[in-house]
Amino acid sequence: MSTASFFSKGLLDSGIGEVINPDTYFQTNLPPRTLPEDEKKVKEFVNKHNKAGRRIVLITSGGTTVPLENNTVRFLDNFSAGTRGATSAEYPFNSFLQFSLQPYSRHYTHSTNCFLDFIELKNDGHIEVISQYVPKMKSILEKYQKVKQEGALLLISFVTVADYLFLLRSVTQIMKDLNEHAMYYLAAAVSDFFIPSQKMVQHKIQSADGGLTLTMDQVPKFLKPLVTNWAPKGFIVSFKLETDPFLLVDKSRQALTKYGHQIVIGNLLTTRKQEVTFITKDSEPKMQLTEEEINNNIEIESKIVPELVKRHDEWIKNAQKENS
Ligand code: PAZ
Predict the structure, then answer these.
(1) Structure ipTM over 0.90, yes or no
(2) What is the residue extent of each domain of the chain?
(3) What gap in Å lies between CA 252 and CA 239, rounded to an integer?
(4) Is 160 a pocket residue for ligand 1 (Cβ < 6 Å)?
(5) Average of pLDDT values for 27-52?
(6) DSSP category for residue 209
C-alpha cells in the first residue's frame, strides 16, 4: 500500500474566560492570510494521490501558540518539539500541517545534531559528509528523495492556535470525500485557552505596569465537529498528553467517549518516546519499547504507525462490507 501525507505544528490560566462553540470561534477569529494558497495545494495533493489510489494521512504535529498582544511580541506555547509527527511521517505513511521539526531533516536539526557537525571542509575547498556519518545520511537521503520525487509529502505550516484550527477545518473538509480511506493522525499540542483578538491589547504589554494577570477564553473542542461533520467516515486518531500517570487512561477514555472517534493514544510527558497506550472502545493495550530497542535507537513511531495502518485496513474493510 502506498500512502501520502500532510504534517502540521501553546498555556496559562489565571482567570475564568468565556466558553464559545466552534462556529462562533470561526466567525470571530481571522483565518491565516495563506489559507487560500494552502487550500489550493492541499486540493492538488489530495486529487493527485487519490487518483493514483494512494491513501492520504493528515498528520498534525508541534505546538500551537497563543498571542498575548495583537502586534505580537509575547505568546504562550503548548509543549511539543514536533518529534512525534515528524518521526511518524517517515514510517509507512507519509503527510502533514507543521512548525518545528520536519521529517527527514529532523535528524540534522536538533541543537545536539547540528548538520554542520556532520560535514567537513577539505583542503581543496570541497565540503564532504564525514565518512562515519555517510551510511545513515545516505539511507535518510534516499528515502527523502523518493518521497520528494513522488510528491508524497506536503508540508503546511501554522504558528498560532487560530492558524491551526482554520487549517484543520479546511484540510479535513477537502479530505471528506475520501471517506474511510482517509486517516487523521492528530498529534499537535493544541492550546485549550486563548485571548480573542478584540480582548487583546494592541501593543506590547509594558512591564513598567507591574505583574501580569491574564484571563483567557476556552478554545472550543474542535474534535466534536471534526468527528461529526468534517470527516465523519474517516479513521481518526488523536493524542492525549498528561503529566500525571494516574490521570492518563481515564482522561484519554473520556476524550474517546466524548468525541466518538476510533483511537486516543495516551502518552506521558516523561515517557512519551518509550511508551504509549492505545485507548479504543473495548481495549487499552500499552505499547512499549524494550531496553534493547531503546539502546538500539528504535523509535516508538516505528511500532505505532504499522499498528495504525493495520487498524485502518480493518476500518476500510468493515466500511466496505457495510456499503455492499
Ligand atoms: O512533539 P513531541 O514528540 O515533543 O511531543 C508529542 C506530543 C506529546 C505533543 C504528542 O504525542 C501528544 O500527546 N499530542 C497531543 C497533546 C495534547 O494532549 O494536546
Answers:
(1) yes
(2) 3-106+149-323
(3) 8
(4) no
(5) 94
(6) G
Q: Does residue 165 have a pLDDT over 80?
A: yes
Farthest-apart Cα atoms in the chain, separation: 69
Ligand 1: residue whose CA is nearest its atom 5: 80
Are 184 and 172 contacting, i.e. CB atoms less than 8 angstroms apart?
yes
Residue 108's pLDDT band (cuts 50, 70, 90): confident
Q: Which atom of ligand 1 is nearest to 81's Cα?
A: 4
CA distance 175 to 167: 12
CA–CA separation, 56 and 79 (whole Å): 27
CA of 33 to the centre of ligand 1 (A): 26
pLDDT, residue 98, reads: 54
Cell 471534526 -> residue:
226
Query: Which atom of ligand 1 is nearest to 86's Cα?
Result: 1
Q: How far is the CA of 209 from the centre of ligand 1 (A)?
A: 35
Contact assessment for residue 244 and residue 46, using Cβ atoms and an 8 Å cutoff: no
User: How large is the average pLDDT for residues 26-31?
Assistant: 93
pLDDT at 210 over 70: yes
- State which fold the 3-106+149-323 domain adopts: Rossmann fold (3.40.50)
How high is the pLDDT of residue 9? 40
Q: Which residue has 474511510 as its cell numbers?
A: 180
Lowest average pLDDT, out of 87-96, 103-112, 142-151, 205-214, goes to: 87-96
Place of cell 504534517: 7
Give start and end residues of each alpha helix (H) in 206-289.
223-225, 245-259
For ligand 1, whether the C-beta of 241 sits within 6 Å is: yes
The whole-angstrom separation of Cα 319 and Cα 313 is 10
Atom of ligand 1 nearest to the CA of 82: 1
Helix, strand or coil, per DSSP, at residue 265? strand
